[in-house]
Amino acid sequence: MMTRGYVFNFFVLALCTLMAISRANQDPTQTTTALLIRVDQSGMGDYKKIQDAINAVPSNNSELVFIWVKPGIYEEQIVVPVDKPFITLSGTNTNGTIITWNDSGDIFQSPTFTVLASDFVGRFLTIQNTFGAGNKAVALRVSGDRAAFYNCRILSHQDTLLDDTGRHYYKNCYIEGDTDFICGDAASLFEYVLLWAIQMFWTWGHYIKKGPMVTQPHNSRSSTFLDYGLDWWQKLD
Ligand SMILES: *[C@@H]1O[C@H](CO)[C@@H](O)[C@H](O)[C@H]1NC(C)=O
Ligand SMILES: *[C@@H]1O[C@H](CO)[C@@H](O)[C@H](O)[C@H]1NC(C)=O
Ligand SMILES: *[C@@H]1O[C@H](CO)[C@@H](O)[C@H](O)[C@H]1NC(C)=O
């Protein structure tokens, strides 16, 4: 599991050190560069919406694509389709780039953000479902293999993170919710991830108290939780 963390770190580093070229200058024969797409609500980037940037990635993509999202509140329900692997979506700071939606009910239809593609990386993002308590309201569903999230805040009440299928890595993240707020069948490593119960709830035969969780959520039994707690949280950004 640690090896995988290293590989993902290397992947992000490689993205940053590769020469990033704008779409206008893209040479389709050049395969050693990462494609950079900028999303900016003020109109100064390539797109104003995150989904439009994802849609611009070609089907069966095999290049590294770095989508840089300027600060703003993006009211969008986003899907990274299965045929668009190798996308990194990065905000600038975690609290500044907020992706928000309000939906509930079907866990596959309601997520604010859905990752179906493999080799996805999310960085410095707040992803929230503002539906509130009382029904399933997924903020983030991750179903692609080899997905990683760094410095992200994932917020809702019930079923906040649908850690659906595949192998995933979460580092320096904050995840809050109540009933079953991490669920799914993925095999994931959570490292320096603060799990915060926003109200007391009943699950798997016992009550979870409001506040930081000090036990592994029972419906994430195939995953590993390391070093979760409060002490590192101030350094999130
Ligand atoms: C992408 O790959 C799939 C599976 O190999 C294929 O069916 C599809 O036609 C491809 N799409 C494009 C646009 O090349
Ligand atoms: C981000 O927002 C959270 C919640 O409001 C807050 O606890 C945290 O200190 C903020 N981080 C920064 C760097 O402002
Ligand atoms: C979310 O939607 C529900 C149902 O449509 C509504 O009752 C609620 O006020 C909405 N919440 C926010 C924060 O918009």
UniProtKB/TrEMBL annotation:
Its main location: secreted. The keyword Signal applies. It is found in: Secreted, Cell wall. One of its GO terms (biological process) is pectin catabolic process. Residues 1-24 form the signal peptide. Its EC number is 3.1.1.11. GO terms for molecular function: pectinesterase activity. Pathway: Glycan metabolism; pectin degradation; 2-dehydro-3-deoxy-D-gluconate from pectin: step 1/5. Pfam families: Pectinesterase (PF01095). It is an enzyme of class 3 (hydrolase). Transmembrane segments: none annotated. Keywords: Aspartyl esterase, Cell wall, Hydrolase, Secreted, Signal. Residues 39-193 form the Pectinesterase catalytic domain. Belongs to the pectinesterase family. This is pectinesterase.
